[in-house]
Amino acid sequence: MEMKDLRIQCENCFGLCCRALYFSKMDGFPENKRAGKACSYLCAASRCSIYSQLGEKHLKGCMNYDCFGAGQHMSAWIKQQNIYITDKQMDTAVMESFHKLMKLHQQLWYLKQAILLIEEHHLHIDTTGELEKLEILLRKEPDKITKPDIEISHDAVNGILRRVSACIQTKYANDTHIIGSSFLGKSFKKQSLKGCDFSMKLLIGCDFTDADLAYVNFLGSDVRDANFSNVDLRCSLFLTQFQINSAKGNKATMLPDYLKRPRTWNK
Ligand code: SF4
């Protein structure tokens, strides 16, 4: 599977995230709904009836969401199996398979990035080995992927990501130490943060304008409304499309090839 296959393709999906996910108004979705129930804006053809208005309706949850390509993968299988999904309800088994696929696609996304970042021979071999195992797992029928499959893969991938992060940090980190886990609205403007570890940190509304973010680890961090104007993110670690969609940037923000520039960043 290529990095491009891990990008969301709503046009090749039966609106699975609009059915399978639990979501709330507070997170920028149109309504509070339980998992398995179709969003009331999803039409019979599995298309969003207000897609062109998501921006003006400020539905950030819908605009920012990313399934790592699990939607089109699962939809292709559903089609092949001739499974009928009703307008109102999603079958529990199909929903569970979709959730499992999303987790595996996310792991694959991170491993593919890791491969691009490391030069160390032994780490390259281990990462490639894990990547091959994951790709074999993803060739299974989605309904045959088990919970233990996911857990084993999750632990192995996390182990690799930890080693890659440690290796890169040792090589590139400067003297800036990041202490704490919550940095709501903090300004890091023009700071040299090369190699810093922001993984799993709350960075909502932080200002990174003109900062040096080379080799900064963003694994699982919450960057909603963080400002990346005039920043080069091409060598930052473990960014996802969801993180980029939920953050701010401008024309001068540089992104790696595998991330798509949000339309609002073209100013
Ligand atoms: S508003 Fe549209 S994109 Fe958002 S959940 Fe509903 S159908 Fe999906």
UniProtKB/TrEMBL annotation:
SUPFAM superfamilies: Pentapeptide repeat-like. It comes from the Bacteria. InterPro entries: 5peptide_repeat. Gene3D superfamilies: E3 ubiquitin-protein ligase SopA. Pfam families: Pentapeptide. This is Pentapeptide repeat-containing protein. It comes from Copranaerobaculum intestinale.
